[in-house]
Each structure stands twice: as structure tokens, then as C-alpha cells.
Amino acid sequence: MSTFTDSDTTARHGELSLNKELREIMCYMADGRLLVSKSHAFNPHVRGFVARLKLMDKPCELEYVELSVISELNEAAENDGVSRSASEMQRVAKDMFQRAVSMRASDIHIRISKRDKTKILFRIHNDLRVMEEQPFDFGDQLCAAIYQAMSDVSSPTFEPISRQDARIGDRAKLPTELDGIRIATSPQVDGYIMVLRLLYNDAMDTTDMSALGFNQPQCAAIESIKRRPTGINIISGPTGSGKSTSLQRILSAIIAESKGRKHVITVEDPPEYPIPGAVQTPVTDADTEEERSRAFQKAIKASMRLDPDIIMIGEVRDTPSARLAVQAAMTGHQVWTTVHANSAFAIIDRLTDLGVPTELVTDPTIITGLSCQRLLKVLCPHCKVALSSVLERYDERELQRVLTELRLDNIHVQGNGCPHCKETGTIGRTVVAEIITTDERMMQFIRNRDRTGAIEYWRCEQMGISMLEHAIEKINQGLVDPFLAEDIVGQLNTGSSYAEIGENSSYILNNAKDHQHVII
After folding, report:
1. 122 closest CA partner among 196, 199, 203, 202
2. pTM score of the predicted model
3. Which of 248, 264, 414, 437 could tie 273 with a disulfide, CB 3.0–4.6 Å?
4. Which stretch of DSSP H or E encloses residue 386?
């Protein structure tokens, strides 16, 4: 079999390198033959590799051989050189991770397409930027190396035609600034995509919630919720809105303040940020959504039997997990979790949609805290520009709309960039949020289907502010560009008495163009 050794492309350093377990049962030859052990003919990972070859437009002729033949090929190929080794692709991946960290990217997207080849994009301050383009094979080998050789929570083989999740947690494979990288893959029409979420380790620099952007009344509300011994506290917001960071800081503060007297258990899919002092349990090895749901339910039930004081459930995603979370709160535990909802009050509707009975959803001893948050870009203080000096940039109707809610004298917009912000015009992101501490009177409004009454009670009695109002507060402080903020929280005049102040805004706009700073 020595005649084939120069053509074994699935050897440890080969172009299509496989992990050790899979190299023992198959090898792909440069002439298009895939040699498979007879006793492993129906192995699902063989089918996955065949699908990968088809996606790469590589020929594939299955040939079933004795296991010893494959062993001989692997042994002979160990020292053979190839065009691009797996170890080289790992170095490429590490360099890519370091570059992303230096730019404070939150995610890396690797898009593999027969039509568009390979595109690598970084998400920086919520915007995607194309960083480089490479051939199809480069991207395929890079993704295979990341998934199979670098991740420590994954399936045995990389299957681009399947949706797969994994995580890189080995510190030797990560920049020092990261605790881990969460991996998700999905097929697309003519290829697949891999998205890497970068988990920074500076989230534990402080447990002060105001450092994230919460104002003092909101921090006080969070402290009040933390002191309630039982009940479920829910944080909502879209993907990438900082929910996990908020949860990490809250739980870390509880552990520190209790000096370890509280037993905190988390159920996560998979764990993201480390929480020192907590028992973090992963939900893994689920190939389908049904299996994942069952595994999640099993993990929640198991956590309740481990004598916890506090349970954190990574996400309430379906009816069984929602009911289990509520059950945990009813049995004397403090529970923290997240859901996808558009506002704090909408969390109630989301729980109802998930099948939680209304009498439980509106019980303030069970549902104790509701929060919704987004992240807004923070303007670079060195190159931000006063809106009053660049009025000509904007349409008159845009200016009239924002000036109904803002003080022109301190509004700033994004500048052209400078060395301090790496030419981006922004230096990070800040939270805008709305936080509700429930009580019997508020829940009575909701039971009576009087949402307006509940909101008015929250605003007047609890001095609550909406995300939109929180955003306006930060715009008026000169921290946030009003037009960038509208992309995240909606138009600034939504819900305001626009008709009453429309005439004033026209007056202000006309005077502003004469550079008279007028406070609304």
C-alpha cells in the first residue's frame, strides 16, 4: 500500500485532516477514493465527510477495505508533507483571534460559499466589517481546524451540512484576553457559515452594574431584586444585547456579598463566562432541537436536586423549560434567566405564550423582577462632533424629529474617527435598559389586562424609565449619537406628545441653524 501514501490527504497533517478517531476508520486519497473500514461502512461520520467532499466539489468514490489497510496508510503518511497542514491552519486561526481581540470584536463570521469563496468578517461595536477574502478551500480547512483540532466541546467530526455547536476553552489556544470562544455553524444555499462569539475575561473586572451603563435608580432596583430570597428574575433582549454579561455580574456580586454562603448553580448551553464560586453545568451532546430541549429540561431538574440557593438558567426557550423555571421559583429558590422579548412588560406575554398559567405569571412572589436591555455605541470623546456644527449633514425632517426630545446644546454625533478609536468614531457600547420590580398592585393591573395602568404605575410610583428614555438621557449627556441610537431603540419621538411640541421643534431648528443653542 506504500504507493498510496503520498496521496493520503486525511492524514494528521493532510489537506483534509481528520481527528485521530476518524483517521482510524477512513482516509481520502488524492485520486478521489475514500477508503472506509468495512466494519464502519454505516458510521454517520463517514456520511458527514462524504457530504463535506460534495460541498467542496471533490470527487468521492467509496472503497471499503480492511481496517489494517487504513492503519498502514496513516502510519506511512505521518511524515509526508502536504500543501497546508492542520497545525498551520491552527496558527492562522490564532492570529485571526488575536486580530479580532485587538479590534475588540464581539464575533467572527466565516462565510464559506462556492460563489463568493471565503469571507471573514468581524462584528465591531455591533457592525459587521469584511476583513479579508480567501479561496473556498482555505475557509473550509480553517473551519475544520477550528472545530476538530481546537474546540473541546463538540461532535467528533466537522459536518458543514449540519448545524453544530462547540466551544474553545483551552487557554493555550486563546488570546490572553479571552475566556473562551463559542462556535455555531449552519449550512447555507451554496456553502456554510461558522460564527465565533468571543468571550472576554475582563467582564469580571468589577461587579458594579453602573460600569455597564445602568443609572443609579436602575442599580437600586437590581439591588432590591437581588435581596428577594425567592422568585424568578428575567432579563430580555436580542442576541448580543449583553444579557449574559449582566447575569454574570449580578451572580458574581451575590456570591461575593454572601461570602460563599449561597450555593449558585447554572444550567447553560453551553457555559459562556466563568462565574467564580458558582457550579456551572453544561448542556451538550444534543444533535437535534428536540434532544437539546430534553437535555435542558433534564439539567434543570437535576440542578433542583443539588440543594441550590440560586439557579441560573441560561435561556427559557420552550414551554417545558419555562414551567420548570417557574416551578423552581415556587419551591423556594431564587431563579435568574433570560428570554427573547421586546420590552420588560412583554416578558409577561412571552411567558404566557410559552404556556405558563396567568395566575402564576401575575403572582409577584413568583415573578419578582423583569428587565430588558440593549447596547448603544459610545462616541469617541476625542473625535465626536457637536450636532449644531454639522446640521447640514442631516435631512430637516430627521433633525426636527430628534430635536423634539433632545437638548441641542449637548448633542454630539459620530466623527470621522481618530487613532484613539482606531478610526471608528466609537469606543465601546453602553447599556440602555428598563427594570421592573413587581408588586401586588402592578400585577393587579396586569391581571385586569390594564397594561396602560401598569405602565403608569411603574413610571409614577417606581420612577421607572423605558429603554427609549434611558437612551435619550445618554444622548443628552453627549455620550451617544441620536441617529445611531434610533437604529437600536427606534425613533426618539415614539410615544412622545409630538403634536404638542412640533411647533417648538421647528422654532428650535430654525434658531439652531443660526447657531443659537436652545435647551428644549
Report:
1. 196
2. 0.74
3. 248
4. strand 385-386
